[in-house]
Design goal:
The complex is a heterodimer. By secondary structure, chain A is of the alpha+beta class. Chain A is 32% helix and 16% strand. Chain A has a five-stranded mixed beta sheet with strand order 2-1-5-3-4, with helices on both faces. In chain A, helix 2 packs across helix 5. The longest helix of chain A has 14 residues. Chain A is globular, with a radius of gyration of 15 Å. Chain B is α+β, with helices and mostly antiparallel strands. In chain B, helix 9 runs parallel beside helix 10, helix 10 runs parallel beside helix 18 and helix 14 packs across helix 15. Chain B is globular, with a radius of gyration of 28 Å. Helix content of chain B is 27%, strand content 24%. The chains are: A alpha+beta, B alpha+beta.
Chain lengths: 156, 774
């Protein structure tokens, strides 16, 4: 076991881990940040997407130790917490982009990076941006609608 | 009606976009152990010896379980049938010393951490005697093939044969006879939340279970049966969310009974979560090969149809014993009118993984065969494919061809055909292979003319639901029901139906979280497209009881006959004088008050008649089993240089009786198309032909459509035929959405390039080979 410091959603967490633990394992099992989901544990579904220094990563493919000293954002930190929502979260509700909801948090974390870097993404840009996040319920139609809606609401 | 047909916000949406806490995968129980299964590397073998001594010595290991320790009563794991149902095959044990597929569990370890459990199973030594294998179901039926089960000569688990009329006469009357072989492959539901369970056994042998499941009461029944204990010893807690099911969580896995036995051994809760690889080899849609022979008159009237279906059920019968019937009856025999028909089904054991439930339950395999062949017939005889189907179709008002005593009260096939054709621009369709250039476009369509809204009328299948609704003093209602929301929005639509019936705003009705099998009425699974119709009927019935009692109390308060009262928007008012009204909160407060109610007008005595919680309970099976109808038109573009197929446009028309939640219904269509398109073009769960091992470990090996491959334009047309037996006129939606895409795409590909592919999936390789380019 070794102890590392993780900066998550603006707070510092000191956590004792095995050297080979992934960021996903630490978030879910040691810190109870269960918004980040495990879908495949092999970098293929995107359910575990979080942001590290503003970039989306599959947290199942990153050692937790490698994230030390970096700014980690999970779904729990998006929109500032509490009852306030990030425009993407509100748009996912309004567009009906949520069915079972298991992919939703990863999908939003990914879309959040897109909207942070691209002011008014086109449909193709949106679809390519979320191509690493699988959803089995929605056929993606309303997820794409939600991202467009959030982009429009945040000023395009 | 104010709420029905609108799209109120899903009650679960806020939590799901902010973290989604209430999935079974998130459940933790104090003191919980983690277990891991050791799985056989061989597809057919006898276990000669298991040595667990090294594993048991590993610090942190609390228990090891081997086949000799499990109960010996064989069972079927399928939830929606009685475990000893005669129509099913009881051929499974929790663990067996005979291995019949690569990946079958042969031992399990519970430890204080997952890491230790994983290390421990590596320390278990198993000595196997390998047995001869068979992976092809038609080879398995041949004399001399390796036999998987003593009770099944030639490896045939079940062999239903159904027919009517005179087949020879029908083929003799035909002007043309068409024959084809249509085959389908193994695909996985790909629910995103893995199968997971926690089972906690107390010192008196009572089990408490959390499971990612589609059927609360199914877990109770199957677990109790497999463990040979009374059902009341098992309590299953309902998870508010399930991360997808699609039929893939319709049977007890190996994990629940193994966790239960490990918990009994250790006295501690035991958690098992499957890896994605384990999920891939747990359930899949069965490959079915269909030999289809059809006789038609020159004008396109069916005279005779004969089909043989060979279903690969893998190592155990489980769902294969029922899928074969749904496939044959709803997919092949009864979809259209034909006076002389015969169908033979074979559910065949092989050393492949066990097949399971998957949305459509045998109909996608049948629909691909039947609707492809109809397209071939129309093409060759130059008949209009829309008119052809209309000519052979059933009509509203006729007796249901499959369900005794049920009439097709609502049945709008014509409207689906017509509105879909108009929307896609069917009249603009060109002749097959008439495009120029390397990229060619084509249009096609397919139908699911007959389907179910649950299982009323079918032997051996549970079909009832029950609900409890209770009003609160703040004017809200709590709805408790066992129906699992597997993502398709059952919580939303059931709250919506309750709100509409009670005259409350949507947000005033809450689904009770974490009901369990001791507190809510028995409910059949969320399957068979049944939840809106069947559970919806139960919710409406409970809500009617609540409303009646609400109006009775209000009538006493307003000194008026309850029949002269109405409730809407949270207020009870006199119909003839709406200004005389009370809020629902005031009425409920009155009913819940002590013998003297202290209000703004001072103390007021209440009567016994007013007193008591306003609550309604129902438990019922629906009166009917109305058939939805669906038609899907697609336009595709085929790249004749690469063999790639792109779906450009989709128009889906469906008679669902009455639309309850528009956004949710569209979501079913769009998500159904994703699964159907994956089935048609790309998904394929592959196995090593020698070792029998699954070659897909994750989504890098098993490709499902991403947002990029999906068509940009999917349009849903909902035909409202107002089913008299349904809640507010509703019948069902879900499964036909996934059944029709594969044949619609296959027919469109034919229209684009003039070649017919009869074997799914239609990969670029197959297209190039058919074009003579490989």
């Amino acid at each position: 076991m070794k102890t590392i410091e993780l900066q998550i959603n603006g707070s510092t967490h000191e956590v004792s881990i095995e050297a080979d633990e992934t960021l996903l394992q630490v978030l879910r099992n040691r810190l109870d940040l269960t918004g980040t989901k495990k879908g495949c544990d092999s970098g293929g579904c995107g359910c575990c997407s979080v942001q590290v220094d503003g970039k989306v990563v599959y947290s199942c493919m990153m050692y937790a130790a490698g994230a030390a000293g970096k700014a980690i954002t999970t779904i729990e930190g998006l929109g500032g917490g509490g009852t306030a929502l990030d425009p993407l979260q509100q748009a996912f509700i309004d567009a009906g982009a949520v069915q079972c909801g298991y992919c939703t948090c990863g999908m939003i974390m990914n879309a959040s990076e897109l909207l942070a870097t691209t002011k008014n993404p086109g449909e193709d840009q949106i679809r390519h941006a979320i191509a690493g996040n699988l959803c089995r319920c929605t056929g993606y139609t309303k997820i794409v609608d939600a991202i467009k809606l959030a982009a429009a609401r945040t000023g395009g | 009606m104010s709420l029905i047909g609108t799209s109120p916000e899903r009650p679960d949406a806020f939590d799901k976009v902010t973290g989604g806490k209430a999935f079974p995968v998130n459940v933790k129980v104090p003191g919980m152990l983690h277990a891991k299964l050791l799985r056989s590397p061989y597809p057919h073998a006898r276990i000669l010896r298991i040595d667990t001594s090294a594993a048991e010595k590993l610090p942190g290991v609390k228990a090891v379980l081997v086949p000799s320790e499990v109960p010996k009563r064989k069972f079927t794991p399928v939830y929606f049938v009685p475990t000893d149902a005669g129509s099913m095959v009881q051929d499974m044990l929790i663990m067996s010393d005979t291995v019949r597929f690569a990946g079958q569990p042969v031992a399990a370890v519970a430890a204080t951490s997952l890491r230790i459990a994983e290390q421990a199973i590596e320390l278990i030594e198993v000595e196997y005697e390998e047995l001869p294998t068979v992976f092809d179901p038609e080879e398995a039926m041949q004399p001399g093939a390796p036999q998987l089960h003593e009770h099944a000569p030639n490896n045939v688990a079940v062999n239903p044969v159904i027919g009517f009329g005179d087949l020879d006469k029908g083929f003799a009357e035909a002007d043309y006879i068409f024959e084809g072989v249509y085959s389908s492959h193994r695909v996985h539901t790909c629910y995103m939340e893995p199968r997971v369970c926690i089972v906690d056994c107390d010192r008196q042998g009572n089990f408490t279970v959390h499971s990612s499941t589609q059927h609360l009461f199914g877990v109770r029944e199957k677990l109790a049966y497999a463990l040979e204990i009374p059902e009341s010893k098992v309590r299953v807690i309902k998870a508010p969310y399930i991360g997808g099911g699609f039929g893939g969580k319709l049977d007890i896995g190996y994990i629940e009974p193994i966790a239960a036995l490990l918990s009994r051994k250790t006295g501690r809760p035991v958690r098992i979560e499957q890896t994605r690889y384990e999920d891939f080899i747990t359930t899949a849609r069965h490959p079915i090969k269909v030999y289809l022979k059809t006789g038609v008159k020159k004008d396109g009237t069916f005279t005779a149809r004969h089909a043989r279906s060979i279903l690969d059920t893998g190592a155990h019968a489980t769902h294969g014993a029922e899928v074969i019937n749904v496939h044959g009856v709803f997919g092949l025999l009864m979809t259209y009118r034909c006076p002389n028909s015969k169908w033979e089904g074979y559910t065949v054991y092989t050393n492949n993984m066990i097949g399971g439930g998957y949305r459509g339950y045998g109909s996608p395999q049948a629909c691909f065969a039947a609707e492809s062949q109809i397209d071939e017939i129309c093409e060759q005889l130059k008949l209009d494919p829309i008119e052809f189907r209309r000519k052979n179709a059933w009509h509203a008002g006729e007796p249901h061809p499959m369900v005794p005593g049920v009439t097709l009260d609502s049945y709008a096939f014509d409207e689906c055909l017509q509105s879909g054709a108009e929307r896609i621009g069917w009249s603009q369709r060109k002749k097959a292979d008439s495009g120029s250039g390397t990229k060619k476009r084509g249009m096609g369509f397919a139908c699911q003319p007959l389907w179910v809204s649950g299982c009323v009328g079918f032997p051996d299948i549970y079909e009832h639901s029950g609900a409890i609704i209770k009003l609160n003093v703040d004017g809200t209602a709590d709805l408790a029901i066992a129906t699992m929301d597997i993502g398709s929005g059952q919580t939303t639509t059931l709250c919506q139906i309750a709100a509409e019936e009670l005259g409350l705003p949507m947000e005033a009705v809450r689904m009770v979280q974490n009901s369990d099998t001791t507190t809510v009425p028995v409910d059949a699974p969320t399957h068979a497209s049944r939840a809106t119709y069947s559970a919806g009927n139960a919710v409406q019935a409970a809500a009617r009881t609540v409303r009646e009692r609400l109006l009775k109390v209000a009538g006493i308060m307003l000194d008026i006959n309850p029949e002269q009262l109405a409730v809407a928007n949270g207020r009870v008012s006199v119909k003839a004088d709406p200004k005389r009204s009370l809020s629902v909160a005031e009425v409920v407060t009155r009913a819940e008050s002590p013998f003297v109610q202290h209000g703004k007008n001072g103390p007021a005595p209440t009567t016994l008649e007013e007193k008591g919680t306003i609550i309604g309970v129902s438990s019922l099976a629906p009166k009917s089993n109305p058939s939805p109808v669906s038609v899907e038109f697609v336009e595709v573009e085929v790249d004749t240089e690469t063999g790639q197929v792109q779906v450009l446009r989709v128009v889906y028309a469906h008679d669902l009786g009455k639309l309850i939640h528009r956004n949710g219904a569209e979501g079913q269509v769009e998500g159904g198309f994703q699964q159907g398109m994956g089935y048609a073009l790309m998904e394929n769960l592959l196995f090593d032909p020698v070792s029998g091992s699954c070659l897909a470990g994750d989504f890098l090996d098993y490709k499902i459509p991403t947002a990029v491959e999906m068509p940009r334009d999917i349009q849903s047309i909902f035909i409202e035929s107002n089913e008299p037996s349904g809640p507010f006129g509703a019948k069902s939606l879900s499964e036909p959405c996934i059944t029709v895409p594969a044949p619609a795409i296959a027919n469109a590909i034919y229209n684009a390039i003039g070649v017919r592919i009869r074997e799914l999936p239609i990969t670029p390789e197959k297209i190039l080979a058919a074009l003579g380019k490989l």
